[in-house]
Amino acid sequence: MRHPLGTVGQFWLFYRIADAEENLGESEVREAHLAKSLFYIRIGDKEKALEQLKVTEGKTVAVGQRMDLVFYTLQLAFFYMDFDLISKSIDKAKNLFEEGGDWERKNRLKVYEGLYCMSSRNFKKAADLFLDSISTFTTYELFPYDTFIFYTVLTSIISLDRVSLKKKVVDAPEILTVIGKIQYLSEFLNSLYDCQYKSFFSAFAGLTEQIKLDRYLHPHFRYYMREVRTVVYSQFLESYKSVTIEAMAKAFGVTVDFIDMELSRFISAGKLHCKIDKVAGVLETNRPDAKNALYQATIKQGDFLLNRIQKLSRVIDL
């Protein structure tokens, strides 16, 4: 089905391009082609928009203007969730920056790349890119600043260690000015850092619907839920060598059976370093010793190196 303004709009754009080519200069011709590109983007005609953006790029010399065309392509790609086009466009933008480019556009690209990383489940890199862009955010064409802070907090919680979370997120003035506007988010962040696990679970339940309905987070909803619970359970268990299941259930405001079932799944998946003594009703942590882990890794790498040397010596002998 044609867009209701499609025919009239295209006629006017063709006239504008023809008039610019006949009577005006190269700059006006480029602007006319850009207007046609933006028209196709606005009506959601992906193929024609990409084709016209390519034509416009051929008439564009300045690096900054070529970067803007990449941003238009990225907006279209995110609308259609075309991850292949997003990846190629981000690589293209980075190559353009090697030719030059201002800081404002570089900072905008960080937000685009952060959104791509979040959408492709690379939450660690997404958090780093979002945090780098907090004080320079201007990418309102993607989402408002409140949404940007929402993504920043969610990705940071499952990516940063406790010290970094405090420094970069909990105490960040840019986040503090906005976080109260987003329901449950402040309680979600602060109760985790303050080890108020009942409040954390309550806030977490309040946020789940918002996460589930988000177009970028929805495909990763179950994964994100598991990662958050891994973080909070690990944080609780770090304080103990052993703790009763009942005490943990009380701290989280849930039943003993729920905690038992939850931890069983996470332990079997290798997400938590502890074991359950069902008879005694106790959880015993068995976190790997850092020095011992380093020692084992050194032995393993040494054996690998010796095997390679032996193979090499046999080849030399031949």
From TrEMBL:
Q: Say if the entry is tagged with keyword DNA damage.
A: no
- Determine if Cell division is one of this entry's keywords: no
Q: What does this protein do?
A: Acts as a regulatory subunit of the 26S proteasome which is involved in the ATP-dependent degradation of ubiquitinated proteins.
Identify this protein by name: 26S proteasome regulatory subunit RPN7
> What keywords is this UniProt entry annotated with?
Proteasome
Organism of provenance: Salix viminalis
* Biological processes per GO annotation: proteasome-mediated ubiquitin-dependent protein catabolic process
Q: Which residues form the PCI domain?
A: 122-290
- The transmembrane segments are none
What InterPro entries does the entry give? PCI_dom (IPR000717), Rpn7/CSN1 (IPR019585), Rpn7_N (IPR045135), RPN7_PSMD6_C (IPR049549), TPR-like_helical_dom_sf (IPR011990), WH_DNA-bd_sf (IPR036390)
Q: Which PROSITE patterns match?
A: PCI (PS50250)
List the GO terms this entry assigns under cellular component, sorted alphabetically: proteasome complex
* Sequence similarity: Belongs to the proteasome subunit S10 family.
The protein's matches in PANTHER family, at most eight in alphabetical order, are given as:
26S PROTEASOME NON-ATPASE REGULATORY SUBUNIT 6 (PTHR14145:SF1), 26S PROTESOME SUBUNIT 6 (PTHR14145)
